Amino acid sequence: MGPPGPQLQRQWMQLLLRHAERAGNQGEIPVAAVVLDEGGRCIGWGSNRREQNSDPLGHAELVALGQAARLRGDWRFNGCSLLVSLEPCPMCAGALVQARMGTVIFGARDPKRGALGSCLDLASNPSAHHHMTVIGGVLGEEASGLLASWFRRRRQQGQLRA
Question: Per the UniProt record, which residue ranges are transmembrane (predicted)?
Fold first, then answer.
């Protein structure tokens, strides 16, 4: 089947933004991700869990990827797609390359830490043994707005920690 088309990308991203907002209401940075198998079925779902689980690896992408790997019984995702509300950081982009993800679709670009085109591009780096298709900016304004308002509220409440 291949990666989802533009309409399905937007539908999934709308759902991800609602889940990201819930994570934000629980004190997590509002990011959510989903892994779709070759047939377009959801096989992994995640939102940020760093605060909740006291886990530096608790990024939405890694949570979804781990769930999908357990469900499939395999760590290879060549024909699969990952959709995430924020451009993956270097750790998550590296994990996606290692997992041989077929396509990554993200919402907001991350000019400070984005590793799939904004700061770095690990998907097309000559050292990468696997190259994946990357589609950025799907509902990017909405995704950026959600993050900006969350960080603004946290700063106003004095709840941001390094």
Answer: none
